[in-house]
Amino acid sequence: MDQDIQAINAKIEKESAFVDKLTGEIGKAIIGQKYMVERMLIGLLANGHILLEGVPGLAKTTLVTTLSKTINTKFRRIQFTPDLLPADLIGTLIYNQHEGTFQTKKGPIFSNLILADEINRSPAKVQSALLEAMQERQVTIGEETFKLDDPFLVLATQNPIEQEGTYPLPEAQVDRFMMKVIVDYPDKDDELKIMQQMSADSSADVNVVIEPSDIVNARSVVKEVYIDEKIDKYIVDIVFATRNPEEYKFDDLKELIQYGASPRASIYLRLAAKAHAFLRHRGYVTPEDVRSIGLDVLRHRVIVTYEAEAEEVSAEDVVRKILNRIEVP
Q1: Which of 228, 240, 253, 312 is the most buried (most CB within 10 A)?
Q2: Cβ distance 12 to 281 under 8 Å?
Q3: pLDDT per residue as tens digits for the range 102-114
Q4: Which of 54, 126, 48 is nearest to 85 (CA)?
C-alpha cells in the first residue's frame, strides 16, 4: 500500500508541475486574491461550478479573463439583467428567408469559461436555463440537443449589496454550485500595488501555459489522488452533523439548523479535497485539505432557522462550529 501511495505521489508531483506556472502567470495580472485564484483552479480541476460573492471592483472579471488566456480557452462574460431571456443565453432558431428553413444560432453559453455576472439580477427562467446547462452540460435549441465544450466552467457572481430588484437563487438551485466563495477586499499592501499598477497603465501580457486538453487530462489524474477510508468517514461525519447535530452531541446547534447539507456536499467535499491536494503536488488527501475547502462547499448548503437569524448566527458560523468540533482522524 505504501509503495502504491509513493507511486501516486510521484505521478501527481509530475502531473501538477503546471500549477506553479499557471499561478505565476495569473499573478502577472492579478495582485493578491490567492484564495480566489486557488478556488477557481479547484473548480476547474474538480469539474465543479463556482458562485462568487463580493462587492464590485474586486477583480472577479479580470481574474476569469486572465485564467482563460493562460489556458487558451474561449471566455464569455454575460451580464445578467431583468430583461434577459433564455434565448439570449443558450441561443435560438432563426428563419432563413432565402432557404425557407430555420437555422440554429448558438448563444454565449457555448464557451469554456462563462462569467455569469450578477446572476440574481435575471428572472427565474434565465437562471433555470443556465443551471440546466451547468447540470446537464448540454443545451436544447428547438428539437436539437448540443453538447457544451469541455472544459466547461461557470463562475456566477452575486452582489451582496443592492438587493432591490433582484431574484434570489432558490436553495435547490444554489446547491448545484460546487463552492460558494466569498471574495474579500485586498489587504493594504496588495491595494497599494494594485493602485500603482493601474495608475501606471501597464497591462501585463499573459502567456498561454496549458491547453484545454491538459485540464481534461489533469482531471483524470486528480481522481487518482489517494484518499483513506478514515478521511471518507470524516467527510460523511461533517455532512451528517449538519443534518443530525444531536447525534454528535451538538445539541446547541439543533435549534439553529433548518436543513442540513445534501449528498452533493459529500461528493463535492471529496472531489475538492483531492483537487486541493493536487494543487499542493500531493498524491494523498489529508484532513487539512477537507477543512480548508469545507466552508466553501458547505456555506450555501446549510439553511439556518429563524431562531438562528434572530440570534445573528449565520450558516457560516454553524459550519465553522461543526468543522472545529468534529473529531479529526
Answers
A1: 253
A2: yes
A3: 888 888 999 888 9
A4: 126
